[in-house]
Amino acid sequence: ARELKFKPICVVVVDAGGHVIAAKREDGASFMRYETAFAKAYGSLAVGVPMRQLRDAARNPEGPWGAWGPNFANSIVSISQGRALPVPGGVIIKNHEETEMIGAVGVSGDLSNNDEIAALAGTMVLGLPTDPSAPSKNSFDTP
Q1: Scanning 6, 32, 70, 89, which has the fewest C-beta atoms within 10 Å of its C-beta?
Q2: Residue 124, by phi and psi: left (phi above 0), alpha (psi -120 to 50) or beta?
Q3: What is the mean pLDDT of residues 98-123?
């Protein structure tokens, strides 16, 4: 995030059970960034897809999730009592064989697309497989 000159961020990592195992908020990141980053990580893990996919489903009833996409996305937010946030910045961490989800990382602080880029960059540095494995081709679109 610093190399790309993003705004100050907060990073939250959850284990496979959705429990926080690491969290760090940079100086200057606003006070709700922890909750937002947690919701991105928790939601990704709970649904089993990166939050970008859930956001896209909520935006497009004609998309691959079909007409139930928007209702599903809204239901996840409701069922989780607000602990899921369907915007880019939440990615799934997989085991090295890429056969199971072992956790998720959520980032908040900049535009959601930049948050996703930061989340992926952090996991790549550690050599952890993720879903998505790279920023979306539209990672630079509007959040």
Answers
A1: 32
A2: alpha
A3: 94
